[in-house]
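Here is one chain, start to finish.
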Amino acid sequence: MDENELEEAVQAVRNALEEGVRGRYSDAVLKNWLDPRHMGQIDRPEGYGKKVGSCGDEMEFFLRVRDERIVDVRFATSGCITSVASGNMGAELAHGKTIGEALMIEASDILAGLHGLPPEDEHCAELATNTIKEAIRDYFLTRREPWRRDY
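Its structure:
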């Protein structure tokens, strides 16, 4: 299979998945799931948080901070569509904010950015906000105790 055939196959799978979930999720959820711009990791982040949600999904957040402003934020998750979408929206909301502003992000902000989630999936937005706050907590600990960054 050449590169073009592979790309066409991937697009066909994406289209089929989109059709299967389109009636259940908003376009904002689908966009954040299919094109998660903030997914990935940061080597030696200034802040790192990892949480496990009530459904068993794991989420991690990585922060790069300059002058108390989040200049880069990445997330990783082992979760489903709504975990990916919530993580990406949470990262989008945190990017460019001061640490204090990012601490104010709530699950309701993520839900608003995603134009809602089904009630059984709203816990994913809570997981994302809790993980962001854990990364910020780690940032404060690392800033106070710089030696922690090496471990």
